[in-house]
Amino acid sequence: MKIIGLLLVPLASMVVLWGVITAVTATESLELREYKTVWTNLRLPAYKLISEIQRERLVSAKLLRHTAGPAAVAAQRNRTDAARDTFRQLSSTSKNRSEEIRTQVDAVDTQLDRLDAIRGEIDAGLSDRLHTVESYSAIIDTIFSLHRHVALIDDIPIYEQSRVIIDLGFAKELLTREQAIALGPVTETERRLFTQIVGNRRFLVDQSLSELDRPLRDADVSLISSPAYQRMRMMEDQIIAGRTPKSWLATTEALAKSFQESLMRASATLNARAEPIADEVLRRAFMLAGLCLALVVVSIAFSLRMGNRLSKELGALRLAALEVAQERLPQVVAKLRKGETVELPEVSVPSTTTEIDDVGQAFSTVQQTAVEAAVGQAQLREGVRHVFRNLARRSQALLHRQRIQLQDMQHRATEPDALEDLFKLDHLTTRMRRHAEGLIILSGAIPGRGWSRPVPLLDVARGAAAEVEDYQRVTVEPMPAERLAGPVVGDVIHLIAELIENATVYSPDKTQVIVRGEKAARGFVFEVEDRGFGMSPEELAEYNERLASPPEFDLADSDRLGLFVVSRLAARHDIRVTLRGSPYGGTTAIVLIPEEHVAEPEAPAEEPRRPMRVVRSE
User: 398-407: long-range contacts (C-beta < 8 A, 24 or more apart)?
Assistant: First the structure.
C-alpha cells in the first residue's frame, strides 16, 4: 500500500495542480470582474472623499488668512462628514476581500478619526497655516495609499494604466496643496514647502503622461498645454521668487476641477476595459481545465497499473531492508563495540525484476562497508587508547624517577638560587605528571596515584593548586575540616587542577583565581572562580552538557583535552561539575563531591592523663 501510495503522490499532486490552475485562472477572471465592484465601493467613494477634504483644507486655510467666515467652514465640514460616512458605509462591504484591503481601510479610518482634532485646533487658534495644510495632507496621503493597494490586478496593462491614473490624481492633490499654501503672502518656510511641491507635481505630471495610453491622455495633454495651465506655471514661479500673484485662487480652482473631471473619465474608461478581458480569461480557464483533467485521468490509470505489478516485489525488499536496518545491523554494531566476533547479515529477496535484485545486492554491499568501517573505527580507537596508555605509563615512570632525583638534589642544595631552580623543575615535573595522567584517563584506564587514608579537603585543594603553572595567582581560602576518601584523592586533585589551570589560562595575568570549599547537604562543594572575560550563555550550556554527559573522545578535538579529562573523572566518581557566570564577569566552576566520598573530620588525639599527686600541708 505504501508503494501504491508513493505512486499516488505525484498523481495527487497533478490533481491538486489541476485544481490550482483552474482556480487561479478562474480567480483571475473573477478578480477582473470584481475590479468594477472595488471601484464602486472603495475607489470612487475615496476620490469623492479626497475632493471634499481638499475643499475643507482650502477653506480652512482661508479662515486662517481671514478671507472666509465660520459659516463657509461649517458648511464644508458637513459635506466632508457626509463623504466620510458614505465612504465608511460602502467600504465596509468590500474591506474583507483580503487582509491587505482591510489593513488599508482601517488605516484610512484611523486617519479620518483625526479630523475632529484638526478642526478643534483650528477653531481654538492652536494651528498655523502650514500645520493645518500638512495635517489634512497626511489624511489624503493615507487614502492614496489605499488607492495604490486596491488597484492591484493580474492584468498588467490595466494595472499599469491604473497606477498612472492614480499618480495623476496625486498630482492634482499636489496642485490643491499649492493652492492652499499660496492664498496670500507666504513665509520663508511655506515658500520652501511650496517650491518642493511644485517640483514634485511637475515631475509627476511629465512622467505620468509619458506612460499613459493615448486615448486616456489626450484630455490631460490638452489641459497642460492650455493657456490657463501655462499662466498657473508663471504664477508658481512668481510665488517661488517671493511675489504674490493675483487671481491665483481662481486660476488653480478651474485647473483643479478640470484635472478632477479628466481623472474620473480616465478611471471610468479603464474600468470598462476589464469586463471583456475577464470573459476571455474565463474561456481559457475552461479549456485548460479540461485538457489537464484528461491528462490526469490517463496518468492515474497508467500509474496504478505499473504500481500494482511492482508493489509485491518492492514490499518484500522493503521488509528485508527494514529487518537488517532495525534489527540485525544494530546488533552487529553493538557486538563490535563489545569486541565480539560478528557475522555479516545478507539481504536476499527473490525477484524477477533485475533492478530489485541489484538494489538488494547494493544494500548488502553497503552493509558490508558499514560494518568494516565500524570494525576499523573500533580497532583504531582501541589502538589509540593503547598508545595513550603505553606513552603515559612510560612518562609516569620517568617522571617518578625524575622527582626522586630532584628531591635528592633539593636536600643536597645549599645555594638559594639553585634551590629555587630545583623547586621550579619539581613543579614542572608535577605538571608533566598530571598531563601523563590525563592521557591515561582518556585511554579509559585508571592512574596509579592514590592514597590509602582520607586526606583533608583543604590539602586536596592546595595540592591541585600546586599542579598548575600560575600557582602564585591561586588563592585557596580556608575550608571545613572534612576529609576526602583516599581512593578518590588523586582523581579529585587532577579534576580540580584542570579547572584551576583553565581559570588561569582564560583570565588576565594579574587577576586572582579563588578556590573555596564548604560542606553541602549532599556532600562537599568546591568553587573555582576566575575574573576573566566569561562565556556566553550558549557556551555555558554547551560545556555543561558535555560535563554532564561525557562524549566519546575525538582526536580532532584536541584543544579540549581538559574538558574530556574533567568529564571522565567526574563520571567515574559520580561527581557533578557545573559552570556558571561569576559576579566579577568571569566563570565559576562548581564541583559537588558526593557524600559517600567525604569523611568526617578526624577527632583530635586526647593527651595522656597525668597521675594526680596529693600534696598534704604540714
Answer: 399/429, 399/432, 399/433, 399/436, 400/433, 402/429, 403/429, 403/430, 403/433
